[in-house]
Structures are given as structure tokens and as C-alpha cells.
Amino acid sequence: MKKSSIVAAIATGLVLLTIAVSSIVSNRKLAGQVAAQKQFIEQREALIDSLHAELFIANVTIARTEFTLEWLNEVNQPAFIQFSQYYDHQTE
Fold it and tell me: For residues 5 and 1, what is the distance between their CA atoms, to the nearest angstrom?
């Protein structure tokens, strides 16, 4: 083999090695970013689940209060009116 062909083969090998190493480094960086994004998404999903649970509890409390007020209006209308006036004017 000629010296120039050996140098060309080594240069080609070094270029390919450089490309392979840079590709591996880029893939590792991307894998780290993907892992961080997955963790972030899991944290947000947990937060969303928690907020859904809190919203459900709040909605149940509101519904129970509305049912109780309807009942109070049926059995003791003066107390219901007094409650409504207090609610409308004293709790702003």
C-alpha cells in the first residue's frame, strides 16, 4: 500500500470515530433531557391528580351545602331567609 492511501484510511477512520463519539455524547445528553422531562411530567400528573381530588371534595361540600339549604328553606323558611341575608351582606 502506498503511504498516502494509509494516511487517507487512518484519516477516514478518525473522522468516523469522531462522528461516532459525538453522536454517542449527543444521545447521552438527549437521554438525560428525556429523563428530566419524564420526571417533570410525572410530578405534574401527580399534582393534577391531587387537584382533581381536592376539586371533587369541594364540589361534594358545595352540593351538601345546597341540599341542606334547600331542606332548611322547606322546614324553616325564616331561618333560611336569615341565612341568605347574612350570606349576601355580611360575608363579602
Answer: 7
- Residue by residue, DSSP assigns 13-60 as HHHHHHHHHHHHHHHHHHHHHHHHHHHHHHHHHHHHHHHHHHHHHHHH
* Domain edges within the chain: 3-90
Closest CA to 7 of 59, 28, 15: 15
What is the pLDDT tens value at each position of the chain, 92 positions in all? Answer: 578 888 888 888 888 889 998 999 889 999 999 999 999 999 999 999 999 999 999 999 999 999 999 999 999 999 999 999 999 998 77
CA distances to 59, 84, 92 from 62, in Å = 5, 15, 18
> With the C-alpha atoms ordered 82, 85, 88, 92, is the resulting torsion angle positive or negative?
negative
